[in-house]
Design goal:
Radius of gyration: 22 Å
CATH architecture of the largest domain: 3-Layer(aba) Sandwich
Keywords: Transferase
Helix content: 25-40%
GO molecular function, one term: glycosyltransferase activity
CATH class of the largest domain: Alpha Beta
CATH topology of the largest domain: Rossmann fold
InterPro entries: Glyco_trans_1, Glyco_trans_4-like_N, Glycosyltransferase_grp1
Organism: Sporolactobacillus shoreae
Protein name: Glycosyltransferase
Number of domains: 2
Distance between the termini: 27 Å
CATH superfamily of the largest domain: Glycogen Phosphorylase B
Length: 405
């Protein structure tokens, strides 16, 4: 995977950690290979221009590597191969002798896929965003609006002209070959599967929904009455496509003093960070709470009343939404991507149009004025069965075992 705990903590990391721990619990050997941005002194071994270190995280063995010539986060625009990394991947696979390789995200991992193909090691890919079809990974145009699809690179030429067209075509063919060579390609939502099948009609996409590690969550028992003060929550990355600016604007426009907004997470876009913090400074009831450990999410959700997911890109299906529902927490979310497969307006949460801060303001204002509306929503949520990581892992294990049957 392109990044992992303890350095980064998005939903994809959570997915891989949960799956790895469950597969290990079921008696299989698991090792995670990931990229790292730690300083050079952090690493213990060297292979050509590759630094790497082996360690345990939550009882899962990790190999974290760093390329001394890596240009940094802009590798989103790089191709899916590098000769030195290919030799490093070959060395690792020669040592580890894996029976199966599971790619949780292909950024900085293309070389491991190529070596899997060369060595005849069956591999699986779980799609969690649009990196395999979009050089930016998030299907957003250079103008900041959602893109309906790369169209084999034709859309990139007109909507993202700063990206070299020949590179886009070359990259598309790489992605197609990688997907076609996989034993199974999996998506966590029907929406994401449809988007990829539209782009790569030759690829069969299987859907396995995320599961939740219920040990980390406690159902919040609360009964709301009129005039009760509410705390809203955002938990995730701070980037433009995540729509945090839409939420802050909507909260400011609600002009209600008896509600609070807690914002968790972080991002490395300094310009965007400055923008959202400057906007939030206009209201003393908005609090930035910093990053959190995946084990803390149950405690965090136990102290808030509603989760808000204001994304403006084609979300796959945010892991945090499943976590909120597992805690009995109502969700307000934009009508994007796979979110509407999870949240049903008026039943387990509320949906508003993407980027429409005015509509979000209306929902916030209504709930703030009538908090008792949340009682029926919570009752509906508590009736729903929470899908577990055990169930999710079982579906993956069926695929794994099918390779050797």
């Amino acid at each position: 995977m392109h990044q992992f705990y303890p350095e980064t903590y998005t939903g994809t990391e959570n997915f891989l950690l949960n799956l790895s721990r469950q597969v290990k619990t079921d008696g299989h050997d698991v090792k995670v290979i990931t990229h790292s941005f730690q300083p050079d002194s952090y690493f213990e071994h060297t292979y050509e221009n590759i630094l790497y270190k082996e360690f345990l995280y939550k009882d899962i063995p990790i190999i974290a590597y760093k390329h001394l010539n890596d240009p940094g986060p802009q590798t989103l625009y790089q191709s899916l191969e590098d000769s030195e990394l290919t030799r490093f991947a070959d060395m690792i696979f020669q040592k580890e002798q894996p029976d199966i390789v599971h790619v949780a995200h292909p950024i900085r991992m293309g070389e491991f896929i190529n070596v899997s193909i060369k060595r005849g090691i069956p591999y699986f890919i779980t799609l969690t965003d649009y990196f395999m079809m979009c050089p930016k990974g998030i299907l957003m145009t250079s103008a900041g609006s959602p893109c309906s699809g790369a169209k084999q690179g034709d859309a990139c030429r007109t909507l993202c002209p700063e990206i070299n067209n020949e590179f886009v075509k070359y990259r598309y063919n790489q992605s197609k070959n990688i997907l076609l060579s996989a034993k199974k390609v999996i998506a966590p939502s029907f929406f994401l599967a449809r988007m990829f099948q539209k782009e790569f009609p030759e690829i069969d996409i299987n859907v396995i929904h995320y599961g939740i590690n219920k040990e980390n969550f406690i159902q919040k028992k609360a009964f709301y009455t009129k005039n009760q003060k509410l705390t809203f929550c955002y938990a995730g990355s701070h980037y433009y496509h995540k729509g945090l600016h839409v939420l802050i604007k909507a909260f400011l426009n609600s002009k209600v003093k008896k509600a609070k907004l807690k914002i968790y997470g972080s991002g490395n876009d300094e310009s965007y960070n400055h923008q959202i913090r400057e906007s939030a400074s206009k209201n003393g009831n908005i609090e930035f709470c910093g990053v959190y450990d995946e084990l803390d999410i149950g405690k965090i959700f136990g102290e808030v009343d509603v989760l808000i997911v204001p994304s403006i890109w084609h979300e796959n299906c945010p892991f945090v939404v499943y976590e909120a529902l597992a805690c009995g927490l109502p969700v307000i979310a934009s009508d994007v991507g796979g979110i509407t497969e999870i949240i049903d307006h008026g039943r387990n949460g509320f949906i508003f149009p993407r980027s429409h801060s005015e509509k979000l303001t209306k929902i916030l204002s209504k709930i703030i004025k009538e908090p008792e509306l949340l009682n029926g929503i919570k009752e509906n949520i508590n009736k729903e069965k929470v899908r577990t990581v055990t169930e999710e892992a079982h579906e993956y294990l069926v695929f794994y075992h099918s390779v050797y049957e």
